[in-house]
Amino acid sequence: KNGAVDPAIEQPLANVLWAAPFLTQDIPELGQVTAMFKKHFGPEYVTMCEQNKLGMVDVDLLRCLSCDLIPKLLI
Fold first, then answer.
1. With 6 labelled, which of 23, 39, 55, 75 sits at a CA distance of 20 to 30 A?
2. Boundaries of domain holding 44
3. pTM
4. Is 20 strand, coil or helix?
5. What are phi and psi of 42, to 5 degrees?
């Protein structure tokens, strides 16, 4: 049975799950954390967070870890 997501942790959880693929090489424990969240919340929920399909990931985090770091004006 999948656990329900408490609204108080929904955005922080989405932030961690979205950022994990970017940071797993530097912080291998994030892979274990993601696996625990998959078991508790379900793989579908984790995938939606990893792809930001729920739109819950903080915009500053998106900007900092996205590939488009160089403004188009500088290219």
1. 23
2. 10-74
3. 0.81
4. helix
5. 100, 145
